[in-house]
Give the backbone structure.
Amino acid sequence: MDSLVRALLAATPPALASGEALAAWRAAIGPALAPFTLPIDRALVAAASADRVGYAFVAGYTEALRSLVPSATDALALCATEEGGNQPRAIKTTLTRRDGRTEWIVTGTKKWATGASSAGALLVVASTGIDDTGKNRLRLVRIPTAAHGVRMTSSAAPFVPEIEHAQVELDHVVVTEADILPGDGYDDYLKPFRTVEDAHVHAALAAYLLGVARRHGWTDLVERLLALALAARAVATAEPKLPTTHLALAGVLALAAHEIAELETVWSTAATAAPDAAAPDAEWTRWLRDRPLLKTAASARIARRDRAWQQLGNSATTTRGAD
C-alpha cells in the first residue's frame, strides 16, 4: 500500500493542450497507472491525476468494469438500461440461437450506455426467454463495438459533459458461445455491479478531492480524504453480494458526504477570495456544474442499505442525506 499512497500524494493533472479532452488525459496518465494492476488502485491513481470530477468518474467506472470482468482486455461499456429501465423484467434485448448453428443473434436497443462511444467492447445484458417460474433469463454478452449491426447515437448530460453516453442499437448482431459470459446476467453481473461501481466511483471521487486539497495546501483535508479513499478501496475489494459489504459501503458514502461538505466550505471561500475576480477558479466552477452527479441513484442506495440491515436481522429506519 505504501507505493499506492505515495502515488496518490504525488499525482498531478497532466498539462493538456487547449481542446484536448478525455482521450488525451487517459493517454497522458498511462505511465502513472502502469505499476498498478488492481483495478481499484488504477482508479485511485487516475482520479488523483484529474482536474475535474468527470475524469474521476470515468476512472472509477472503467476500473469497476475491469473488476467485474477481469478477463477483458478492451475498454468496456455496460449496456443494460432500456426504455423500461434496467430491472430484469425491463430487458427486452434478445439473445437467440441461430437454427441449426452454433452462433447466436443479439437484437435490441439500449437507451443509455456510459462510455459506449469510446469503448472497444460492449457488455450487453440480453434475455434468452422466460423460464417456467416467469423469470426473465438474462445473460451478459461481450460484443465488439465495431461488430456488424451495432449502431450508436452519442449524447451527454448537462453536467459532467466529459462523460460520453450513447443509445446503442443492436440489429441482428452475430455472436458465438465464447462471447457469452458464464453465469446469470443479472445475479452475477448487473446486480453486483451496482455495488462494485459505487465503491470504485466513490473511491475515485475521494482521490480526486484529495488532489484538490493537495493543490490548495489543505493538509488536514488531504489526510482525511486519503483515509476515505483507502476505506473505499477496502470495500471495492470485498464480495459485492454480501450485506456486510453494503453496510460498509453505506458508511463510506456517509463519510464522503461529510468530507465533501467540509471541503466545499473551504474551497468556496478560497474561490471567492481570489484576487483576480475576472479569472475565477475554473476547477471550482466545474465542480459546481457537475455536483448533481453525486445525487444520482440516491434512492437505490438507500434501498440497498435497508435490505442489508434486514438481511442481518436488524431494522433501518433512518434515512441519511448521504445516501
